[in-house]
């Protein structure tokens, strides 16, 4: 599907470039509710995994964190992410994976790329090989992680010792009991000493995000 690039005067990001479908009246923007539920500090290092065009990366940078690692695998989306990068945002054109793979197939959707995924789902129109980096290596020394990877999250060892906060969005996977997997992940996070700030009720497709801070 053809798409335009437009500039959005956004108070959350300070203004950024975004994709808009030719048939849409306005550009796509992410709901940043779960992201904004976590207070960020100057000592924080943030890993934005599944950055898309970098909305949370910009929010974190504007909050004055030490630095932001911003990961986006889709080639044309990464170019727009680079365009939005400023100050202390470090962009990486790579998919984050749960193993030691150095490259992986990224399945492409027919829209503006917001649902491209290494976990193949329905309504994909093709695929492309992209560089890959293991989740633990992508975090590096990050204290806060945001994960929005369209189904690949179930393969991550999400809890890492240096993390003080986790922001996570779950995604339905056809043929998988994904909700049970999501509840198990949430239970593991809480058992590791994290307190929930926001929990999903799984009542509809947009109610799948959660956020946690370490006690």
Your description of this structure?
The protein is an alpha/beta fold and 215 residues long. The protein has five helices and twelve strands. The strands form three sheets. It has a seven-stranded mixed β-sheet, with helices on both faces. A three-stranded mixed β-sheet has the order 6-8-7. The radius of gyration is 16 Å and the shape is globular.
Key words describing this protein structure:
three-stranded mixed beta sheet, 215 residues, seven-stranded mixed beta sheet, alpha/beta, single chain, 19% helix
Overall pLDDT:
93
Rg, alpha carbons:
16 Å
Q: Which strands sit side by side, in order, in the main sheet?
A: 5-4-3-9-10-12-11
Name the poorly predicted regions: none
Amino- and carboxy-terminal Cα gap = 45 Å
What does the overall shape look like? Answer: globular
Percent range for β-strand residues: 25-35%
The portion of residues assigned to helices is 10-25%
In total, the number of strands is 12
Number of helices: 5
Q: Main beta sheet: strand number and arrangement?
A: 7 strands, mixed
The helix-and-strand class reads: alpha/beta
Write the layout of secondary structure elements.
Layout: E1 3-8, E2 16-21, H1 33-36, E3 45-49, H2 55-62, E4 67-71, H3 75-84, E5 89-92, E6 95-97, E7 103-109, E8 124-134, H4 135-139, E9 144-147, E10 165-169, H5 178-191, E11 194-198, E12 209-214
Parallel strand pairs: 3-4, 3-9, 4-5, 6-8, 9-10
Antiparallel strand pairs: 1-2, 7-8, 10-12, 11-12
């Amino acid at each position: 599907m053809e798409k335009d690039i437009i500039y959005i005067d956004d108070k959350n990001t300070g203004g950024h470039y975004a994709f808009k479908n030719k048939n849409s009246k306005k550009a796509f923007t992410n709901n940043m509710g779960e992201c904004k539920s976590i207070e960020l500090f100057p000592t924080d290092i943030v890993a934005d995994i599944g950055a898309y065009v970098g909305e949370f990366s910009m929010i974190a940078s504007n909050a004055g964190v030490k630095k932001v690692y911003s990961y986006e695998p889709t080639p044309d989306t990464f170019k727009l992410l680079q365009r939005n990068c400023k100050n202390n945002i470090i962009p990486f054109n790579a998919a984050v994976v749960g193993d030691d793979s150095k490259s992986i197939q990224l399945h492409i959707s027919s829209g503006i790329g917001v649902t491209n995924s290494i976990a193949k789902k329905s309504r994909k129109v093709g695929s492309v090989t992209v560089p890959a980096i293991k989740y633990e290596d992508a975090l590096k020394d990050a204290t806060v992680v945001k994960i929005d990877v369209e189904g690949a999250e179930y393969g991550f060892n999400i809890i890492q010792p240096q993390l003080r906060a986790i922001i996570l969005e779950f995604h339905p996977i056809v043929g998988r009991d994904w909700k049970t997997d999501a509840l198990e992940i949430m239970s593991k996070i809480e058992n590791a000493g994290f307190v929930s700030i926001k929990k999903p009720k799984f009542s509809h497709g947009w109610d799948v995000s959660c956020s946690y801070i370490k006690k």
